[in-house]
Design goal:
This protein is of the alpha/beta class. The N and C termini lie far apart (57 Å). The strands form three sheets. The chain has a ten-stranded mixed sheet with strand order 14-13-12-11-10-9-8-7-15-16.
Length: 457
């Protein structure tokens, strides 16, 4: 007799339109062929793969899965964790729910898109939380990322994580300012078999307190980043720059290297919520020049850390920007494929395509989970129709984009930024347009080519 189960890293999952192993380290689905579904169903420590009822091709498929590290042989009736147990539904694939569990915060950030200092969106009531958990299970959602406001302020956070663990749903990310993060919470996550990436904000060395409106926030954020890395958790740092703090960019870079962060994501605030831009808002040229200097220094130092420099450049230590095949858009491509697999839930129950639409005119047009279940809203609602749109309508509304040589690469950019930075969803994303039209992407590529093949200390 031969019994098998999924290894602890991988969760076997089957949807109506997809099947595979959800990787609990990368938080991505590794798809399997249609014929492998029966093997996934047999990874229950109870199906005898030596039985005559099992087809030879299924035995061969099991062997390939074992060789790939996705499955392993085990004793009959070996206890499986909730993550190792097969979850199967006859509904469309939804990979992730990005859930703002609270709109409240303990900082006073001047660029908050959620208007958290005013507590505009309240928080998810416990009854609604339990209802959403049932929806997640029914839809076989693979993972949940938690944000706010400040999610560590949410009074039902530990219960929420406990219940997600019981249902075999991974917490893939916690977006936090780090002020309340401590070793006790890290231990709690370990106890419930969760290892999320912590996304922690740091808006410039020596300027973070000013940007966040609370004295001592910077030291607490630095302590939180260090705690994550010391405890073996990934810490991804986000930094928002304006004319007030751009001078700290390279100091911040030194701090990121010192802290050994997993990734550093650099950007400018989106014009929504509390941020209205004004004289402090950085233009593309200002941001591009600063990031170009940073890129050259990063290249000279041998690519020490991962940095996402907005849409200008993805600085990865292990791969070249030139080695990556960039997107090639057509008018019939989806406006944003990511919104088909990942949805954003506001604290008040509003379901949006992504956080970029919070506080915009689109928000009121989107459905609420109090009105219907997640699957129904995903299949037939104003949200579903919005997520199913292609680029064609926007393409036809902008004749200059039809003539532009860069359309296939920029695809007219992001709809959320078209709305907040250019006044309408059917308009182009000005920032992305400047990135290609004004040659910024080419300048970053040229710098990389200049340093390519050279070894620097």
């Amino acid at each position: 007799m031969k019994f098998a189960c999924a290894t602890k890293r991988y969760s076997p999952r089957i949807w109506k339109d997809r099947a595979g192993f959800f990787d609990r380290e990368t938080f991505r689905l590794i798809p399997v062929a249609q014929q492998a579904r029966s093997v996934l169903m047999g990874l229950d420590a109870n199906t005898d793969f030596d039985s005559y009822a099992v087809l030879p091709e299924d035995r061969r498929m099991l062997q390939r899965l074992i060789q790939g590290g996705y499955a392993c042989l085990c004793e009959k009736n070996t206890p499986l964790s909730p993550f190792q147990r097969l979850r199967r539904v006859d509904t469309p694939y939804i990979r992730e729910l990005h859930w703002a569990v609270t709109g409240r915060c303990n900082l006073l950030c001047r660029h908050c898109f959620m208007c958290s200092p005013q507590g505009k969106y309240g928080q998810t009531e416990r009854e609604d939380m339990l209802r959403v958990l049932s929806m997640l299970e029914a839809a076989n959602v693979a993972c949940v990322s938690l944000t706010g406001g400040e999610p560590l302020l949410y009074p039902h956070l530990r219960e929420l994580i406990e219940r997600l663990s019981e249902k075999g749903i991974a917490v893939n990310e916690i977006v936090t300012n780090g002020v309340l993060l401590d070793e006790a919470f890290i231990c709690f996550l370990r106890e419930h078999d969760q290892k999320p990436i912590f996304q922690i904000s740091l808006d410039g060395v020596g300027m973070h307190d000013h940007m966040r409106g609370v004295e001592g926030a910077e030291q607490k954020a630095l302590r939180a980043i260090e705690l994550c890395t010391n405890c073996g958790f990934f810490a991804a740092v986000t930094s928002v720059f304006s004319r007030e703090n751009l001078h700290t960019l390279e100091k911040c870079y030194e701090q990121m290297k010192k802290l050994r962060v997993s990734a550093w994501m650099i950007g400018r605030a989106q014009t929504t919520g509390l941020w209205k831009g004004g004289p402090m808002a950085l233009g593309t040229d200002e941001m591009g020049e600063a990031l170009l200097r940073l890129q050259r220094r990063w290249l000279e130092e041998g690519r020490p850390i991962s940095i996402l420099m907005e849409n200008f450049y993805e600085a990865s230590p292990i791969s070249s920007m030139r080695a990556k095949n960039g997107p090639s858009y057509t008018p019939d491509d989806l406006e944003c494929a990511e919104t088909r697999d990942r949805l954003f839930l506001m604290p008040d129950g509003r379901l949006l395509p992504c956080p970029g639409f919070a506080g915009t005119a689109l928000e009121e047009r989107m459905p609420r989970i109090q009105d219907a279940d997640l699957l129904s809203l995903r299949i037939d609602s104003s949200l579903a129709r919005f997520c199913a749109q292609t680029r064609r309508e926007r393409y036809l509304a902008n004749p200059e984009c039809q003539r532009c040589e860069w359309f296939s690469q920029c695809g007219m950019g992001c709809r959320a930024y078209a709305l907040t930075e250019n006044g309408g969803i059917l308009r182009k994303d000005i920032g992305m347009c400047e990135m290609y039209r004004d040659g910024w992407r080419a300048r970053f590529l040229a710098a990389e080519k200049e340093y390519g093949g050279h070894k620097h200390g």
